[in-house]
Prior knowledge:
This protein is mainly β. It has one helix and twelve strands. Residues about 5-25 have low confidence and may be disordered.
Amino acid sequence: MSRLSLFCLVLVLAITSTMAQPSDNDTSPPVLDVNGQPLQRDLEYLILPENNASGLTLINRNNSCPLYVGQEDSSVTQGLPLVFTPFQAEETLIRESHDFTVAFLASTICAQSTAWRVGEEDPETGRRLIVTGGEAGFFRIDRNGTEYNLAWCPSEACPNCRPRCGIAGILIENEKRLLALDGPTVPVVFRRAGTA
């Protein structure tokens, strides 16, 4: 093997191992809850729209499984508690624009997980619905000025993919409020479950 070939091989291995490792000095700010505290791995949170509507919960869209992510049509409910799990195993905080999985902490009538994933496209609007069950999808929280938005654009989990990224908002279908990508967005806030 020539020196040039050996150098190229070492360079490719070095770049690949650097890409696979998170930076120790990651400067991405953590996502903050309503009390100014960073969101942490495996702690229970509620996701609430900034407009004081009800929090996110499981919605039975068509009287069968799977269940969808959405809102009850009431400003009284806080929604269901959920947990975030960062893509990077050693990460303890949820950081802006970094991949994580999210799952509700609830029992359901469906024999499946409550982890979120991108589901089917609504035929009338072309918006992609957020559904539970199956393999968890990687989501992220992006900041737009002072507002946080839920988004789907897996970049750490699939660095070579070119997904059709989208920001989440509410789609009203048959009087049900479903979380969906690719339309008007709804800024959100985060509150530790069990706190006021």
